[in-house]
Amino acid sequence: MLKTILHINPDKTLSHIAPEIYGQFSEHLGRCIYDGIYVGEDSDIPNVKGMRKDVVEALRALHLPVLRWPGGCFADEYHWRDGIGPKENRRRMVNTNWGGIVEDNRFGTHEFLELCDQLDCEPYIAVNLGSGTVQEAAEWIEYMTADGDSTITNLRKENGRTKPWHLKYVGIGNENWGCGGSMSPDFYANEYKRYQCFCKNYGNNKLYKVACGPSGEDYNWTKELMSRIDHEHANGISLHYYTVPGDWEHKGSATDFSDEEYYITISKALHIEDIIEKHLAIMDEYDPNHDIDLLVDEWGTWYDVEPGTNPGFLYQQNTMRDAIVAAASLNIFNKHSDRIAMANIAQVVNVLQAMILTEDTKILKTPTYDVFQMYKEHQDATLVESYAEAVSGSASAARASGTDSADTANKIHGPVISYNDTSLPALSESVSVTEQNGQKLLTITLANTSLTDSLSVELELPMKYSFCGEASIAMLHAGARAYNTFDDPDRVRAFETEEDWNGNLQIVSLPACSVCRICCYVS
Ligand code: AHR
Question: Each residue of 275-313: pLDDT tens digit?
């Protein structure tokens, strides 16, 4: 058994965890929108205004804060006017990025904003910079958010929506270094500044504008972009990072992987922390007051598609390995919540690391869904200092010898797993606090990345604090290759227990390959 101490200091509050870190992404890609979310009002599948009831209900349970749409790469070939008005008149276009299928635009602006209403979440619209025009972008914002008697707002009213919608988040372009126009950073920065200038605030609606940031380790893009924009132009820049176990040609199977591929996957997922820190350091050079946020608006695992499915649809299964990736990534985003204002896992239904998979009338919730369910208490909470300390011998013995001093300057990250050429920490963690009825409620989220060893974690508070009352513990664990199927939809499922906790330390035992969330009061 591996052992570690997790030091938690409820007095050391670090940053607000924006709920938007638990955001999602939906694109006109494969069966994400059609089948996955929108089936149309005439469908036999129970729906409200065309949206699947089962999917909306499952997503509402996650307290989904924000949903990005319509892409992705699709955003830079999407023309919003094609998706309004009577459905039978809507333009049919070829979805050139995703399988070359015909997109009939029956899900457009009104449908997306209706979906966000049903989900009670903020919409995040990606406007077309790659193949659109400034006028088109400007008029889309006007269509959605302006009141009054203009030609554009009257068009919206003719289409059945009298009041303007509230819209905060607007991304201008998507991956404009690649599918969004193969632009150089200086060209994009100039285009961005022009587009954002005409995305106006109407009435009380205040836009939060996001510029297309880098992919992965493209630090030059960040440098060139940040040297050309400031907070007058942008509230945030995006970062896209996908965890691909192999290379883009042979990414690897979602379900059939070796132990080595497992560790490579987790270690590549953890690498996002290094990437985030390097981009933030560059941003700091140009924006020392931190007026511009970082939004990880696409992240998650990307494998070879499920055998027999359309390669352009990016449909993949989701195992306990994905749950570990999700848990560790969300812990990293929490730990950087001073600068990360949003993160959107790709994608919400039927595409890449999805929350939900659908097959006709059936749905299943993936192991990643459970992680989002377990972590939702972090939304809007305050990150507190926590760090792991490796223990040789028993955890208690190490404490007794005085190694429990909360010296963050010397912090180490607990036990390390080495597998062939890959080394990674066994424990991923983050801790947040909220005040409830005059008491501090801690949410502690932990993942044991080891495939073979359980991990004993000694949770230690400063002496002045004690755990008190009932702790609610949710545990998700299964073999790394375990996944849910339509015939066995609850094979991998979190379960909850309650325990009376007292004193200033508690030991939790994490089985190999597991995710745990503890909610406990301390006073
Ligand atoms: O999420 C799938 C695709 O990945 C998106 O369309 C694109 O932005 C990224 O390359």
Answer: 999 999 999 999 999 999 999 999 999 999 999 999 999
Tell how far the Cα of 402 is from the centroid of ligand 1, in angstroms: 49
SS3 assignment, position 339: coil
Interior/surface letters 414-427, b for 16+ CB within 10 angstroms, e for the rest = bbebebeeeebbbb
Q: Which atom of ligand 1 is nearest to the CA of 314?
A: 2
Residue 50 confidence class, pLDDT cut points 50, 70, 90: very high
- Average of per-residue pLDDT values in the chain: 95
Q: Which protein residue has the closest C-alpha to ligand 1 atom 9?
A: 72
Cα–Cα distance between 418 and 423 in angstroms, integer? Answer: 4
Mutate to test the pocket of ligand 1, among 25, 26, 27 (most ligand atoms within 8 A of CB): 27
Q: Is 452 exposed, middle or buried (0-12, 13-18, 19+ CB in 10 A)?
A: exposed
Contacts of 244 (CB under 8 A, 6+ apart): 251, 252, 268, 301, 302, 303
In this structure, which amino acid lies at residue 299? W
Q: Which of 87, 18, 124, 77 is nearest to 348 (CA)?
A: 124
Residues with active-site annotation: 175, 298
| Neighbour count for residue 303 (Cβ, 10 Å) | 26
